[in-house]
Amino acid sequence: MPIRVGLEGKNMLKKQEGKKDYQGISLPFDLINRIDLLISDGTLGYNSRTEFIKEAVRIRLDDLEEKNNVLQKLKKELMEG
Hints:
The protein is of the alpha+beta class. The protein has two helices and two strands.
């Protein structure tokens, strides 16, 4: 059974007044255990799972957004030329 991890960020749902800007997610225990093993001794600079997960998601989103931008540019060039 997965556990829930709170992550900071904007979701696509309308924010309710007075609510924090967080959305919970569920992750499988095997991923949580792998994260815990990586950050447990503190040498990687992460103070918590949430900190690690936020950075991992940001890095992945940046990568996907860049790839999508390149793809859109190529599609536009193909359509024009």
